[in-house]
Predict the 3D structure of the following.
Amino acid sequence: MTHGASGTQSEARTVEDEAIEWLVRMRGPDATALKGRFEAWLAQSVEHQHAHEWAVRHFDGAEILKQSERHGTGSRRERPVTRWLVGGGLVAAAASIALVLIGTQIARRYAVKSAAASELATSFSTRHGEIHTIRLTDGSLVTLDTDSKLSVTMDATARHLELERGKARFLVKQDARPFLVTAGAGTVSGKTATFDVGYEDSQIQVRLISGNAEVQPVAQPAVYMVPIRQIPLGHKLSYRVADFRPVPTPARLRDVNDASWTSGWVEYRAVPLAVLVDQANRYAPKPIVIEGMAVGSLEASGRFRLTDTDAFVGRIAEVFDLGISRRTDGIHLMAK
């Protein structure tokens, strides 16, 4: 985060520590009272703004920060010893402190490294409704879904990519350097593989299409090891954005075949029309609006091209015998 010849590692650490502390404060009960001071801190320099953006990406939602002696909301209050000793709390507290210290150390290394690598990083993004394929300098292909953003940094030792939002498909070309895709609290790696990585509410969805790939946490706790998770071929693996905790695939995604999403197609075994329309609206130039709960609960199945809004609306209206009304606020579907 600190740039220029005069920027030292200790200065970068100070900025990062402040950013983490402000992140915790502004998620706490005193956020309203501290808003003015936080905005003043943020406006002091570009380094502060970059540090805050970084902290949000890597620590937001992490309960551990709220418990941290160093960064937690109670860090300036004296804590009774008994709190740490009841019901195995000593072990839990030790694990909490160890995790936040390791996370902070990784954060510091990341911040110092990113300051040097920022000039080499390349950012790609797509607009609403756009699906775009990019050929990277190593020959790998990346297809970005609608409203997605990806940053890429390649050096002599590794190929680093960070999916900041949205969804992407990675077709990895074989190379001596590892291919690492970070999304939320996890990193997907593969040497020769094709896989999807995408944000879905508070989860990250990873799907292996071909080859071999695995996923592991960005930061490991000090007192126990989170195992590397192999991704089964053709299956989805899910974890929470904030803390890498495994989670089940959302129900609405279990009966969907989205292998062809890069060309705009998706296939549903059975899905409520409201859910299907919600997915189509990710690409629609004007929102599709369902009028009436009865219409939204109709069950649809089949293969749909979500990126062709007019054709999609026409097909849905024909199958379910619905009326179409094109208005300034969107395309309305209703019972006749």
About this structure: The chain has a mean pLDDT of 79. Residues 9-117 form one domain. The helical segments are 9-25, 31-43, 46-59, 63-67, 89-117, 273-280, 293-296, 309-320.
